[in-house]
Design goal:
Blueprint: E1 2-5, H1 7-15, H2 22-25, E2 34-36, H3 40-44, H4 49-56, H5 59-70, E3 73-74, H6 81-87, H7 95-106, E4 110-113, H8 117-125, H9 131-137, E5 141-142, H10 144-155, H11 157-165, H12 172-177, H13 184-195, H14 205-208
Parallel strand pairs: 1-2, 1-4, 2-3, 4-5
Length: 215
Amino acid sequence: MILLADNDLILKLAQCSLLPDLPQLLGEGAGCPVFVLPTARFQLIPKSEQKALAKAGNEATLQALRTFLDGASELPEVQDASLLDAMDGVTGIDGGEQLLFAAMVELELSTLATGDRRSLQSVLSNQEVLPQVYDALNDRVLTFESAILLAIREFGFLDVKERLLTCPKPDGMLRLVLREQMEERDLVDCLVSHCRSQYQFLACKDRLAEYFVEV
């Protein structure tokens, strides 16, 4: 398997101490090839040490980002420019996601790790305009929410809860539920509600099905 990761998800997983476990969450070994956007390193790790630390939120996150990016390669150039042309102007899909979506079409044995739920929803809403992208994403996407669900299944709720509580910059979704008294059901319900609409795109359905009994 080849893993394609967007900048937003890389940062979020690093801040939640889950980035080193990304291949394991997907059922892959540590040697899984990882490709990132050309913008990844300078966006996630600014040259100024002070700005880099502020972006990461703490030193542990910054070190996790450096280690991950040192082992990653830059996304290969898209061969079929028509894939990018088809997405040009589609609301909700920015330039970075265009490159990742096109790569998903061209790299058959790949999984997309993305924190951009808005772009996924745009593909769902424009599947007649983007049939190749739509087909390529089915069963092959890891979102921030589904990554945490897989982590709960892999490591247990208490382990994941402890990691999440150390997150220096929880996003809006986590702020809804993250607290010392948080119970497993509270977290799972929140995660499921935020990724249910993209369920058909999610990878690892065999390990996520128990959380989506109503889908």
